[in-house]
Design brief:
With 65 residues, the protein is an all-alpha fold. It contains 2 helices and no strands.
Length: 65
């Protein structure tokens, strides 16, 4: 059984397959790394997935004990 945190992390990876890859602030379209998220981008995505989970998914499900 997955916890709330594991489900939200899975949602982040579903939305952005590069969720776990680090990107530096100076890396951009012409930079060396074209994938990944900065810490700020990762936090924004996580907050959005938490909001979706808490408002739309969790109210319609039950966690098994």
């Amino acid at each position: 059984m997955k916890t709330r945190e594991e489900i939200i992390t899975a949602m982040c990876y579903t939305w952005r397959h590069d969720y776990g890859l680090d990107r530096q602030e100076h890396d951009g379209p012409g930079g060396l790394i074209s994938m990944g998220l900065t810490a700020a981008q990762r936090e924004i995505l996580r907050q959005k997935m938490e909001q979706i989970f808490d408002n739309d998914i969790a109210p319609n499900m039950e966690f098994k004990q």
